[in-house]
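for the writeup, i need someone to sanity check this before i put it in the appendix. the sequnce is what the collaborator sent (i think, or maybe the updated version? ugh). structure was predicted straight from it, no edits. if anything looks off just tell me and ill rerun, i have time this weekend
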Amino acid sequence: MKFTDTSDVSVREMKRLKRLHFIFGLSGLAGVALTSLLASSTLDGILKLLGCLGVASAFLILCIISYRSQKIFVRHSDKVPSGESEQVNSNIIESKLNALDEANQFFGTSLKPPDMFRLISSRAADIFPFAASVLYLVDEDNFTLKLAQADGKNFEILPETELGIGEGVAGRSFSSRLLEFTTNIGLEDKLLRNAGLKAFRHSIAIPLFEDNELFGVYQLFTESAVTQDESTRELLDAIGERVAPIFRNSMAFERSLSNALTDPLTSLPNERAFFMVLENQLAESHRYRDDRPLTVLSIDIKDFADANLSFGHATGDRLLTFAAKLIKEQLRKMDFLARSVNDEFVVILPTANEKTALEILERIKLSFVNNPFEIAEKENLKIWLNYGWATFWKDGETAQQLLLHAQLRKQQAKSAEPSKVLWFPKEYVN
């Protein structure tokens, strides 16, 4: 969408009027000076009178010319739809649209999607006023639209919503690949699980494209009626063109950040993420030393290297994923599980003293006893764990000290056990 610049005609009229005002001011000074000269001259009284009348007449003519020019300029400026006022307003809108491009340039790869969505929605509302907005993204597996972000009035709590293609104004927009309007707010409220939309009067769905590929829908809710004329459609299309790459870049940033902190095999946080979270938890424990205990666990699978060699790396990978799932199921919601290296898992237990940590470890061990790992059909393997723990203040005060102490305790437990069992290929058994 392109908005025109300020009219050249209007600029010329303004300059002409300024020149006229300047001439008018000089003429006034000249008139006063000439009148004074006539009054002090030795001319006859009649000639002096005629001279003063001539000066007054000339000044009156200038006043009339100035008045007519001012009136013409005002009449020209009052033509709002096609004149300067409309064009100045268009320039303001263009400037605000450009501000969206600047947001993409400066924040597109540095803000997480929720923060970016709030920022962009705030700037978009300055261009086209709306009270709330939501972002739907395509779920290619189920071919549905999933609500990814929401902001504005009545959206303090994000409702989990999934729309079928063609369902609601967002679904229709995705199906038609066009801008869609609706006044049926009751249906939208029902689709969003009674999100409290009845105060709104209109909703608009804007399809979002990247390289001509439709990846989502940006839905706006307004408290006043919206005129569905060509200029409104052009403005909303322009907003859609600006926000689509911003949302896409923000999503890409989140994926790259997630990949940097996630173990690809188990989908658990990796060791880097573990230390980031542990540092934050330790800061709280240092602050409330007597009231906020903290324990770190170090867990690995007994004889994992032999099992990996005997049954193959594919089975070993499945075994790690199985162990990660089983450990996580026994933890509290506040606990943090990460994969470290090889078969080692590390756990942060906020607010847990040694007694609580040992209770959680018992639950984990019991879950492995009751849930053997399936190597193949009708062939199971019971998994045993090595583990150690370290409690804040008692065993260390820094992240490195706690993890080192937990690993040392685990190694001490290993050395106290009988020699490890040797694994033999299945064909050599019997």
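Residues 8-40 form the longest helix (33 residues). The chain has three domains: 8-78, 109-259, 271-428.
thx in advance!!
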